[in-house]
Amino acid sequence: MLNRRGLIGASLVGSGLMGAGAASAAAGSAGGVQLTRPCVISTWDFGVPANQAAWAILSKGGRALDAVEAGARIPEQDLKNHSVGRAGYPDRDGHVSLDASIMDEQGNCGAVAALEHIAHPISVARAVMEKTPHVLLVGAGALQFAQEQGFPREELLTPESRVAWEAWKKDAKYAPKANSEVGDYGKTSGQLGTPGGKGNHDTIGMLALDAQGNLSGACTTSGMAWKLRGRVGDSPIIGAGLYVDNDVGGATSTGVGEEVIRNVGSFLVVELMRQGRSPQEACKEAVARILKKKPAAKDIQVGFLALSKTGEVGAWSIQKGFSYALCDGARQDRLEAGESFW
């Protein structure tokens, strides 16, 4: 393991991508966290209440798929969360559009992208998986399907999000970078937080291992604030924002989705785990590959979170600030700081 981590670090040095902070992070890298089943993990601090909803199902012997859907619905309905669900910041034209994906232990999966007027895209994604022969529905077709399944049509642009959008329009500039989607946009508190931290997150990804030893995952987001209308990131793309293989483990991602899509990131993490990497090593190597292919990505944030079939957890990101929540029988409401290169 030490040799493998050394090789990863050496490849970054050889590419001119590893700075002093990265070298320190690599030298101090420990293996990750071991959980006992059932367990659930999720990205960011809002993963804590999401995990609680999932744990209510897992602790009673429930299925991982039901747990991740229930958990993902919590941030989707949180009116204080401007990066997931109904209170998400809109695109540059003022439209709130949502993306989500879900995947079970049998490899079944469903997703929706650019879905407007529906508050719970994760549940629509599950309906796509279970009630259609397709994997992904988008735009107007996804909305039509959702309404046919009984999901109510709603106005998703909240008054608070509208105020933030109006404030952004005064300059109307957008370039993906850390802290471009701060939670207090248009206000004067100046609480931008850590570059790459929760002020710039845009996704919740969840992975659960149930008492029967089966894995499932979910990922849901409102995407980048002020994006071009129709822009879709990695969250609804199976293999990019989410991937589950019940023989190996699962992975999910957060951050600038374009870079995750280019590297098929979550699939890559799971395949590295299949080859013998720990979840921590696999997440680290996936981030390193992004940086090697595109050195300029060091100025943005991408993070991966992984859970093995045995309950081992790993996480790694480009910049410091990425956090993830853990929950099993011994750990409740626990938030961890992920490792990073900078």
In short:
The protein has ten helices and 14 strands.
What does the model show?
The chain has helices at residues 2-14, 20-27, 47-58, 64-76, 121-131, 139-148, 159-169, 257-262, 265-274, 279-293; strands spanning 33-34, 39-43, 98-103, 109-115, 136-138, 204-209, 215-221, 242-245, 249-255, 302-308, 312-317, 323-328, 334-337, 339-340. It is α+β, with helices and mostly antiparallel strands and 342 residues long. It has a single domain (2-340), classed as (Glycosyl)asparaginase (Glutamine Phosphoribosylpyrophosphate, subunit 1, domain 1), CATH 3.60.20.30. An 8-stranded mixed beta sheet has the order 5-4-3-7-6-2-12-13. Strands 1, 8, 9, 10, 11 and 14 form a 6-stranded mixed beta sheet that branches.
Brief descriptors of the model:
342 residues, eight-stranded mixed beta sheet, six-stranded mixed beta sheet, Glutamine Phosphoribosylpyrophosphate, subunit 1, domain 1, alpha+beta, disordered N terminus
User: How many discrete structural domains?
Assistant: 1
CATH superfamily: (Glycosyl)asparaginase
* CATH fold naming: Glutamine Phosphoribosylpyrophosphate, subunit 1, domain 1
What is the CATH architecture term? 4-Layer Sandwich
Number of helices: 10
CATH C-level label: Alpha Beta
Q: Calculate Rg over CA atoms.
A: 19 Å
Could you say which overall geometry the principal axes of the C-alpha atoms support?
globular
Which strands sit side by side, in order, in the main sheet?
Answer: 5-4-3-7-6-2-12-13
Structural class designation = alpha+beta
Low-confidence stretches: 1-30, 177-193
Q: Could you report the average pLDDT, rounded to the nearest whole number?
A: 86
Note the run of SSEs as H and E: HHEEHHEEHEHHEEEEHHHEEEEE
Number of strands: 14
What fraction of residues sit in β-strands?
Answer: 15-25%
Helix content: 25-40%
